[in-house]
Amino acid sequence: MRKTGTGIRLFFSYVLLAILGLSVLYPTVWILVSSFRPGGAIYSPTFFPSNWTGEHYSALFTDKSFVFGRWYWNTLKIGIFTMLFGTLATTMVAYVLSRFRFKGRKAGLSTLLILGMFPNFMALISIFLLLYQFDLLNTHLALIIVYSCGAPVLSTFIVKGYFDTIPRSLEESARIDGASHLTVFGKIMIPLAKPILTYMAVTTFVGPWVDFILARLVLRSREQWTVAVGLWDLATNFRTANFTMFAAGCVLVALPITIVYLLLQRFIVEGLTSGASKG
Amino acid sequence: MSLTASVLSLIAPGLGQLYNRQFIKGVLFLAIDALGLWYFINHLPRAVWGIVTLGTQKQHMEKVGKITKMVPGDHSIHLLVQGLIILILFMIFAWFYVQAVIDARRNGLVRENGGQTVNFYRSAGALFDRSFPFTMLAVPIVGILFLTIMPIIFGILIAFTNFSGPNFVPPNALVDWVGFRTFTDLLTLKTWSYTFWHVLLWTVEWALLATVTTYLGGMLVAMLVQQPGIRFKKFWRTLFIVPFAIPQLCSALIMNNLFNGEFGPINQYLGMLGIEKIGWLTDPQWAKFTVVLVNAWFGIPVTMMLMFGVLTTIPKDLYEAAEVDGATAFQKFRTITLPRVLFVTAPVLITQFAGNINNFNAIYLLTGGDPKTGDYQFAGQTDLLVTWLYKLTLDNNKYNFASAIGIIVFLIIASISIASYLRTKSFKEEDMVQ
């Protein structure tokens, strides 16, 4: 009796898991298949095309209005610099706020918390005007600066939460041995904080790949664009005419990020959940 | 000696340091002081004037000789931004001034007590020792000041002006301070208030639905995978993380096409089953359903990952004891799993609720706030406050209304956060479970 009950339960569980798995995979497989389908329409009588083509991918790199290679390079450049500066800035702020007690620390923490509660879009116009004042519009430097300075506002609490869990005795003994603050930070804390730094590095690197709002506002000329802006343009202005090209662009943007996320799953989950439980 | 040094530094930072025989530092401070004074004497009055008046000279035609030509007037918004930048620079300068006086006083005290002031090399070394926190924070703070704090102050100030199209946009016109009028307009003018209350209502509905669906969904998926007897647990787990790994920019745009009413495959399959086309994204009711459904697709993986962690902490003997007592699966869920999980994840639930109020991507990329039915002011049926704010800013030039909405969103999020903080605090004190 009990055994058949378990059997039925497992059977239904597997059915449910299969349905869920299908609904997870269906959109991704669909876009992948669409990117290889000849023609430009969304509509297709069959799920798999009768013949496969890579022309949409090559079009993205050779077409005059879609300089995907260029956009890729731009995004890679912005992503790497943002990752370096954003992670560094956040780590420095989080470390100091976690480890040192000084006048203004509490005020600083609350300020960061409050700043995080404003919708980012409120700042759009004035960031635009600020960049205009300093003649930085249409430059990648502008994006790198804005993203890097935004990183501490977004993630200081997550990183600080991680630093808080590292025992103080480690650095105290190093200080007694005569290590400077800089040595303690660079040689002891950074290596210990590797998981959270990986999380920070991935999220700051991915940011420029998916930001289509600020980038679209700042980058005025096509050849300066990032892939996110290009993809947005494909999706909004060319979708009905050339859906398959959008599909190819989507695959090109999503694939590297998805692979990185899946490979570094462990770190990202750790970062996410530690941030979540800290609130 | 400390008094003389402080007074000297108060007259001009650097003098006190010179008096304290710290020559390099003194000269350096004096140089910064001179540079600052020169800059602020030239710029500060105009900055303050700009912020207070927002410009007085309108763009106008002027006769020069025989031809009339357009003379540019004051650009209110540039005046405001420039004014804020200069004020922030001035605050940094003032801070430096205060620090210089404190430094002079401290070194004066050292000398009073017969000590020696340290040389420049050593003082610079203190930047990495005693002043280490400030050295580390200096660059990020400047960045945050200019790229987060200044823009937010600007955003707040705009809500108290009449900066909006088509009549009050520089350079054609001047912008003026109007006090709380934007807020009263938003809440009392028929067209605005109707849109505002409906968008607010939908924002709250959306946040509730989105949070509950992803939360329960994540919990159920996690329990499904975690239950004894299921094989290839690791495989299922990785599979269900996939939606999280795909950037939302891509997946939301994909979903937008998938649910396309005319050509999308979903309606195509339904057609094969003989079901008529559904306006997934074009019918107001269906569109609301679709965004919640698709959001579950985005959001379930995150809660699922969280739940895996929480579920493993529930002791197995609780379930065994319940089984001995003859509890059904549902009873076990209701009396053991749910309360435990809720207790641990309550703060997350609140953060997710707040996050969903601001969930721009899910709505904007999927429906763009549409469908529009015409009775809303610059908004569609699925617009949240944030997407409405965005459209008002970038598509319709209603900057002052956008800012007012931003402030209201901030107030909502802030009160939720405070409530959550108080709640978690009381939870901690109560020590309900364990």
Textual characterization of the structure:
The complex is a heterodimer of chains A (279) and B (434). Chain A is mainly alpha-helical and 279 residues long. Helices cover 76% and strands 0% of the residues of chain A. Chain A has 13 helices and no strands. In chain A, α3 (68-99) runs parallel beside α6 (140-165) and α3 (68-99) packs antiparallel against α9. Chain A is globular. Chain A starts with a helix and ends with a helix. The mean pLDDT of chain A is 87. Chain B is mostly helical. The relative contact order of chain B is 0.08. Chain B has 2 domains: 2-179, no CATH class; 184-430, Orthogonal Bundle (MetI-like fold), CATH 1.10.3720. Chain B has helices at 2-11, 15-19, 23-53, 76-112, 120-126, 132-158, 181-188, 190-226, 233-245, 248-258, 265-272, 284-312, 316-324, 329-357, 360-366, 385-394, 399-430, and strands at residues 60-64, 67-71. Chain B contains 17 helices and 2 strands. Chain B has a two-stranded antiparallel sheet. The N and C termini of chain B lie far apart (62 Å). At the A-B interface, α1, α3, α4, α5 and α6 of A face α4, α6, α8, α9 and α10 of B.
Outline:
With 279 residues, chain A is mainly alpha-helical. Chain A is 76% helix and 0% strand. Chain A is built from 13 helices and no strands.
